[in-house]
Design goal:
With about 140 residues, the chain is mainly beta. It has a single domain, classed as Immunoglobulin-like (Sandwich), CATH 2.60.40. The protein is about 5% helix and about 40% strand. It contains 1 helix and 10 strands. The strands form 3 sheets. It has a 4-stranded mixed sheet with strand order 4-1-7-10, with helices on one face. The longest helix is centred in the last third of the chain and has 9 residues.
Length: about 140
């Protein structure tokens, strides 16, 4: 893997392949600007100037801890796992039908763990998140 250009840092965005979750692409914003979309099992990166970045997956389902902030320095590479927790987020329910919306979460992941997941997504489990108990509709 090549390092970022001199004086810049690199932010990676990736998703594991999990056919039980959404197969839609996750649109990612950084500091209020759309930077790309990541599909299931996919990854992309953006080279950025050193600084503070607010990473926001675009959501219709709003929850806390969906966004993350990172501080990057020249030469650094950081990895953001884009997690889909749609199966636990029933955004709208009705008496005879249910509407499920994608629930994206951005999570900073240790580089060695993220690289293992990107290179061989079946080799290790997805990062675990601690989420609050939510009301379930049946």
């Amino acid at each position: 893997m090549l390092p970022p250009p001199p004086g810049q840092a690199r932010i990676w965005f990736y998703r594991l392949w999990d056919p039980s979750e959404s197969l839609n692409v996750a649109n990612i914003g950084v500091n209020g600007v759309y930077v790309g979309s990541v599909e299931p099992g996919g990854a992309f990166y953006r080279d950025v100037n050193p600084g503070i970045y607010h990473i926001v997956p675009q959501n219709q389902y709003v929850d806390y801890n969906q966004n993350t902030d990172v501080v990057v320095v020249p030469g650094e590479q950081v990895f953001i796992a884009v997690l889909d927790l749609t199966s636990g987020a029933n955004a709208v329910s009705g008496s005879q039908w249910y509407v499920h919306r994608d629930a994206w979460y951005a999570q900073l992941v240790l580089p060695q763990y993220a690289l293992a997941q990107i290179v061989n997504p079946g080799s290790c489990a997805a990062p675990q998140r601690s989420l609050p108990a939510a009301a379930f509709s049946y």
